[in-house]
């Protein structure tokens, strides 16, 4: 054989969890329309449009150039992972297409460090707030029903009392 080493994402990209790597692979496969194991210029164009950050032809070429190590003008899965490595390391220009791709792909590569923890706790707090708000709404509904039942009972009692004054 040509002695080409088989690429092992988990081995080479140790900074990412297996879950993150699975998400990245799913994303890569989703946009590898030709199913040839590469994302070419047209597929990248479509991907960026779908992510809501359309790029110019030149912008797309520059995106590929930034991580295209073998200079074949398309992205292998390994080169695709380099986008997220650079994003996590803060090596992407804020206004670059790759930065937009990493940000909009909804794969959170910032789990390391304070930002990830902060986001995690914020999300958790929000979930707790929503759950307790839901419980409060249910409680309020139950209180309202109890109040209505109580009023009905009082009205019936008042009516009975009124009736008895007439029947005497």
Automatic annotation (TrEMBL):
Keywords, sorted A to Z: Calcium, Coiled coil, Metal-binding, Repeat
Superkingdom of this protein's organism: Eukaryota
Keyword S-adenosyl-L-methionine: no
Tagged with keyword Lipid metabolism: no
Domain EF-hand: 19-54, 55-90
SMART domains per the UniProt record, alphabetical: EFh (SM00054)
Gene Ontology MF terms in the entry: calcium ion binding
Residue ranges the record marks as coiled coil: 124-162
Protein name: EFHD2 protein
Organism from which the protein derives: Mohoua ochrocephala
């Amino acid at each position: 054989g040509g002695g080409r080493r088989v690429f092992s994402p988990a081995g080479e990209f140790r900074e990412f969890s297996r879950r993150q790597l699975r998400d990245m692979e799913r994303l890569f496969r989703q946009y590898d329309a030709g199913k040839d194991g590469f994302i070419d210029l047209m597929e990248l164009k479509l991907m960026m449009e779908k992510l809501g950050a359309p790029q110019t032809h030149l912008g797309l070429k520059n995106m590929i150039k930034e991580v295209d190590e073998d200079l074949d003008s398309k992205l292998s899965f390994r080169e695709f992972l380099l986008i997220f490595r650079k994003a996590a390391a803060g090596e992407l220009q804020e206004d670059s297409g790759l930065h937009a791709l990493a940000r909009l792909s909804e794969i959170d590569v910032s789990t390391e460090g304070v930002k990830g923890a902060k986001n995690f706790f914020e999300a958790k707090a929000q979930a707790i707030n929503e759950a307790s708000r839901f419980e409060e709404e249910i409680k309020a509904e139950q209180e309202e029903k109890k109040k209505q039942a109580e009023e009905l009972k009082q009205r019936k009692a008042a009516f009975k009392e009124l009736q008895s004054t007439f029947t005497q």
